[in-house]
Amino acid sequence: MLIVSHGTGDWFVADVTTWPRPTDNGFVPEILEVEMYAEAARRVIGRRVSRVTHLDSLVVGEPSIVQGLEGKRITDVTRLGKVLTLHTSLLAVDLHFGMSGRIVVDGRSPIDELSYAASDDSRWIRFGLSFGKGFLYISDPRRFARVQPTRHGEGLGPDAMTISKQQFRECVTGRNAPIKAVLLDQSSVAGLGNMLVDEILWRADVDPHRKKLDAATVDLIHAKMRAVLPQLARRGGSHAGRLSVKLRVPGSACPRDGALLSRATVGGRTTFWCPKHQR
Is 27 a residue whose pLDDT tops 90? Predict the structure, then answer.
């Protein structure tokens, strides 16, 4: 079990024993997984970086600046959407985990394996911080993670865990694009990924192709999102919805009404939905 904070004063227990194996379909870090990473990283607050141990040439942008973490004390760890930020008094660094990046702190990670990753191997450490006692590193066999000097949330919309109904209306209403694409757009709502968006729209009875939704439908999607995130966090992560990873294969039936699930590419991502109740 891992006790996790939303960053809003609310706490819940996440069951990390239920994370799927690498054969599961489509499971990559979304907002819930990155919040777990952030909570693990908060264990290093107050520690001084003795050495930056890895600066992978593809993963780490502006390595000469990131190297400046050496000698500095970690003062805070924050998260906006899928971006985790390590703060010091003079320098802050953003961590993006991509499809397969995991954070490991003092030899432990809140997530053992991801669908597009694999178990630990020292060859896959792409960025590392060593402290007087303990360490923090990113393990990523596919090198999709990114580490760079902070951009202070530039280009990101409000966080999906805390966005208000009014903010959500302003970000979503009037967009001439499929609602699935709008919700995946990190400049609209920060943190949602493929599995969470499919789950939210499935619960809201909304076809992922729909455009220019009325106010009542937008509010319903917001309400479902705010309910889904803490619920799935308690269950173990973005993969733990009713439209689960096990159903994300051709020929699966909707767990609500038994209709054959449809599959298509929407917003550039493989999308599953129920044509019977999602309209």
Answer: no
- Find residue 274's DSSP bridge partners: none
Q: Give the C-alpha separation, 95 to 7, whole Å.
A: 17
Question: What does the longest C-alpha to C-alpha distance in the chain come to?
Answer: 59
pLDDT (tens digit per residue) in 213-255: 999 999 999 999 999 999 999 998 999 999 999 999 999 999 9
Domains in the chain (CATH in brackets) are 2-149 (3.20.190.10), 165-273 (1.10.8.50)
pTM of the shown model: 0.87
- Which residues partner with 85 through β-bridges? 78, 94
Give the β-pairing of 269-273 and 262-266.
Answer: antiparallel
d(CA 28, CA 33): 8
Q: Which of 262, 252, 210, 202 is nearest to 228 (CA)?
A: 202
pLDDT, tens digit, 9 for 90 and up, residues 80-90: 999 999 999 99
Question: Would you place residue 5 in the very low, low, confident or very high pLDDT band (cuts 50, 70, 90)?
Answer: very low
For the chain, the helix, strand and coil percentages under 3-state DSSP, each to the nearest 5: 30, 25, 45
Q: Is residue 160 within 8 Å of residue 30, measured between CB atoms?
A: no
Where b means 16+ CB within 10 Å and e means fewer, 1-23 reads ebebebeeeeeeebebeebbeee
Give the dihedral of Cα atoms 113, 62, 84, 162; nearest 10 deg.
-130
Q: Which residues contact 43 (CB under 8 A, 6 or more apart)?
A: 105, 106, 134
CA distances (Å), origin 105, targets 6, 38, 190: 19, 10, 25
